[in-house]
């Protein structure tokens, strides 16, 4: 067997061409003359100097049987099983020889049965691919990432969701189409129960509601073949990249999300980032190609498909809706707007039309009549969940205007003084304005705020606080005298009395 490297073979042939003698070339190349003559003879015969000739093997006569076993098992049979069969047929070689022969036959069989791919050339305005991915946990609760990929422009959309129900799917599809600015001819997805309810003789039976949604938007909902991710590899890659960037892992060191709204903002930021940079295949930013592809998309219906989104409601002036004789609150900005309510498990999901399309705006645990579900975060203008407005000073006279212009501390002092029933309030306000002229409005405003917190509204309290602020280096926490804070000595020293 010829075992010289390509460099050694080149030097041997070069030495022979120089000397025209095998003995002399062997001395120059540092090898045996017979080796020189072998490589020269192979070159003269038109053969590759590096090509080796396999010697006859004991297993060669059993190769047809090995090929039969490999083909019958579709390339899955183990080499030890093949060796047992061959030994029974009279093979006397080792199992190592059998393993090598089986590996060669399997490689040849797979090459002959390898799946053949034809490059897919998507057309503008034809295909939109959808898929779901497991999202990060928010407040200990699982979320889902709805991922969409417009095939020709490579434009990607990622929307966060709580679940993969039919209503959520239609809502995310509506929001995606409105972001794209049009509807393609086909929507391709896999086979979840919200899309394919059954398979008969390998034929997918579509969910009637998803078919109705496709007719509403003017597109055909298609599904890929089971266990065939290559048919929608673009959206599969989108799910993989989105999860790698948005889900906190040890690889990206991303912090946990504090709220569902924070996750939504991060999804929007991620979409802007990936759609603004050039794509590896097209060398163009997807947002630029989307502008050209919109000419091939047909218009979006003005009203969303709401048959699968639940019952329609109108948000009242108090930011609540009535569902099942129970009041549920909604976030600010939807008073008078139409929303859709659907029951998901033991929760009520409320969906509304936003600037980017249909979006789930809130969720509530289902309740019973007489037990409304009101979220304090939906009413930021009512701090601490108070149902009534806190009193807000409205100055009318010049004296009131001068006092309230001192700052927030003056506002707080007036509100607390009114609630405490303090007398001679106007004279004390005038005294504060005089002190502000002499000592500065900032110091007096700070003193008024501290007086309001400590509940000190006497005539001499404000000057006393001002003196303390002027002399003290730092102001600590004020302590209001009550039952918890007392100067009365304790009785701990009497615990051991009489023992």
Automatic annotation (TrEMBL):
GO terms for biological process: DNA integration. It comes from the Bacteria. SUPFAM superfamilies: Ribonuclease H-like (SSF53098). Coiled coil: none annotated. Residues 118-294 form the Integrase catalytic domain. GO terms for molecular function: nucleic acid binding. InterPro entries: Integrase_cat-core, IstA-like_C, RNaseH-like_sf, RNaseH_sf. Pfam families: Mu-transpos_C_2 (PF22483). Belongs to the transposase IS21/IS408/IS1162 family. This is IS21 family transposase. It comes from Streptomyces sp. R41. The lineage of its organism: Bacteria, Bacillati, Actinomycetota, Actinomycetes, Kitasatosporales.
């Amino acid at each position: 067997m010829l075992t010289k490297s390509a460099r050694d073979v080149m030097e041997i042939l070069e030495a022979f061409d120089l000397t025209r003698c095998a003995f002399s070339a062997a001395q120059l190349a540092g090898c045996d003359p017979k080796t020189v003559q072998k490589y020269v003879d192979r070159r003269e015969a038109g053969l590759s100097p590096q090509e080796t000739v396999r010697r006859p093997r004991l297993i060669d006569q059993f190769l047809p049987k090995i090929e039969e076993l490999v083909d019958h098992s579709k390339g899955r049979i183990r080499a030890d099983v093949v060796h047992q069969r061959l030994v029974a047929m009279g093979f006397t070689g080792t199992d190592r020889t059998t393993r090598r022969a089986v590996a060669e036959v399997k490689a040849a069989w797979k090459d002959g049965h390898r799946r053949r791919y034809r490059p897919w050339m998507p057309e503008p305005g034809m295909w939109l691919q959808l898929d779901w991915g497991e999202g990060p946990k928010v407040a200990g609760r699982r979320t889902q990432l709805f991922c969409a990929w417009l095939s020709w422009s490579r434009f990607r959309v990622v929307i966060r969701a709580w679940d993969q129900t039919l209503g959520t799917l239609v809502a995310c599809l509506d929001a995606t189409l409105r972001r794209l600015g049009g509807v393609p001819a086909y929507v391709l997805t896999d086979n979840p129960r919200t899309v394919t309810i059954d398979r008969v003789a390998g034929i997918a039976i579509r969910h009637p509601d998803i078919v109705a949604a496709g007719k509403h938007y003017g597109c055909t909902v298609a599904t890929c073949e089971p266990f065939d991710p290559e048919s929608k590899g673009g959206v599969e890659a989108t799910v993989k990249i989105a999860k790698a960037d948005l889900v906190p892992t040890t690889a990206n060191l991303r912090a946990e999300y504090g709220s569902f709204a924070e996750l939504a903002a991060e999804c929007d930021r991620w979409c802007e980032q990936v759609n603004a940079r050039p794509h590896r295949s097209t060398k163009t930013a997807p947002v630029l190609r989307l502008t050209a592809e919109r000419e091939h998309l047909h218009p979006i219906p003005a009203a969303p498909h709401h048959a699968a989104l639940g019952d329609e409601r109108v948000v009242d002036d108090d930011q609540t809706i009535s569902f099942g004789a129970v009041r549920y609150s909604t976030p600010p900005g939807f008073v008078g707007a139409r929303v859709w309510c659907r029951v998901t498990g033991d929760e009520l999901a409320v969906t509304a039309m936003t600037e980017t399309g249909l979006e789930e705006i809130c969720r509530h645990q289902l309740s019973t009549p007489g037990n409304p579900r009101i979220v304090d975060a939906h009413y930021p203008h009512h701090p601490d969940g108070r149902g009534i407005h806190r009193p807000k000073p409205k100055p009318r006279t010049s004296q009131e205007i001068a006092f309230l212009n001192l700052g927030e501390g003056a506002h707080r002092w007036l509100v607390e003084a009114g609630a405490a029933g303090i007398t001679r309030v106007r004279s004390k306000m005038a005294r504060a304005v005089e002190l502000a002229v002499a000592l500065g409005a900032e110091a007096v405003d700070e003193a008024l705020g501290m007086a309001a917190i400590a509940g000190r509204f006497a005539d001499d309290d404000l000057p006393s606080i001002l003196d303390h602020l002027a002399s003290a280096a730092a102001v600590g926490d004020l302590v209001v005298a009550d039952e918890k804070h007392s100067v009365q000595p304790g009785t701990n020293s009497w615990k051991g009395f009489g023992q």
